[in-house]
Amino acid sequence: MTFRSLVFSLFCFAVFPLSLSSADSKPNIVFIFTDDHCEQALSAYDNSRIVTPNLDRIAKEGMKFTRCYVTNSICGPSRAVIQTGKYSHLNGFVRNGNTFDGSQQTFPKLLRKGGYQTAIVGKWHLKSTPQGFDMFDVLVGQGPYYNPPMLSGGIDAVATRNENVGYTTDIIRDKALDWLKEGRDPEKPFMLMFQHKAPHRNWQPGPKYLTWLDDKTIPEPDTLWDDYSNRASPAANQTMEIKQHLTESDLKLVPPKNLTPDQLDAWNAAYVPKNEAYLKKRSSMSEKEIIKWKYQRYVKDYLRCVKSVDDAVGSVLDYLEEAGLAENTIVMYSSDQGWYLGEHGWFDKRWMYEESLKTPLLVKWLGVVEPGSECDEIVSNLDFPETFLDAAGLSIPGDMQGRSLVPILKGDVPKDWRTSFYYHYYEFPGAHSVARHYGVTTGEHKLIHYYHVGEWEMFDLKSDPDELNSVYGEDEYKDVQASLEAELGRLREKFKVPEDPEPAPQPKKEKKGGKKKAKQN
Ligand code: CA
User: Fold this and answer.
1) What is the domain partition of the chain in residue ranges?
2) Nearby residues of 326 by Cβ (< 8 Å), 6 or more positions away
3) Rounded mean pLDDT, 152-173
């Protein structure tokens, strides 16, 4: 050490000791979030389709939650719940298409008030301009998989649009790394929301993985051939079947429209030969063979998108280690909801059934969370903001409706932890025609009310984990049903859920010329 640097170090120590020690004592937070990523495609949960070594690193060094439920299984609403810690009917964002009221209390604003520097990179999807962030650089709307326009700004900066060329997952990764390396204030603790568009519909792989898995056959789920019998009518009346609702663009039988010439060349080199082989034999294939082909095409593209996310997560984890930040940084991984990878014959989400009710949740916090630990308590995206505030040593506002996971992360489940969970989905009429419903689950039994059609379902999740046989109204389950009905009433009252003011829609006459193209959500 030279004399000059020694003097400088002593000077820094004398002048900045408080700010340095406060940054040291408060953990940084990196909240990694994806769109529509289910446990079935994350090898820490299920390695039958894909290996995700980098996401698995978070699980190995931290805690894996096996029952993380979302309050409303759809993109924008899940994000609004995380911003506010409140159910959709209270934060005002009940369905996609709503605009988030950014003037309300949110966790980034509270963290910022508590001395944190806050940033978000990637998907926002709440229509309004992000508030409460020192820096944001977010996709405009849904955002494409390639060459995304983004909107950047912050507390002290006017929002401006920037154009980008490349694969969106990689661009979001690079922007997050740039901010970690050069954008943030090293004297403050930080909270970075690192948010991916992938693997949302329509599952466009990046250049690196266009032909990955070509030589593999992905296993089919047991319920791919579900006939929707023994349930209420909504299960059969949706429009999210692999069999008949995937478009040519979903199936990559036509290329994406916004690629550069080079990107298009790489795309066509990968897909044209596969498409030609399929189209040549399609007329001689049975209906079942065509569904099987669609399933393989759809799931492989989804997994390819996940693979790029896993790579991007690895880059950020590596950087945190290299920069000496890993020790004092909480890394949390989750998705806005779960997803159907062919279960019940479906793609998409929305239902209170397990695959879309559950979302992955992995949390790494070195020195606090026991590495490789697992938690099967009922937790929720409703708990995320309370957890961030608690970890930062800040108080949790009384009007937030979830609970901090910090005690659980420390290995101590509070005695009065929840044993039941309330769910509510509102987006009907809407994409994929899933009836409005609410319900309660205990993790062992589940009661669902499709209130516009006046039908109920009840499942015994132990004996029927795939939810193929509703036992609602059966004598054998009389007591369970009565107790779930009472619990449903209690939770609706506790969470101040009003009657849905939207009247039940009347059946529409279908126009000649077929159905309107399904909107992407
Ligand atoms: Ca989503």
Assistant:
1) 3-203+302-418, 423-494
2) 317, 320, 366
3) 95
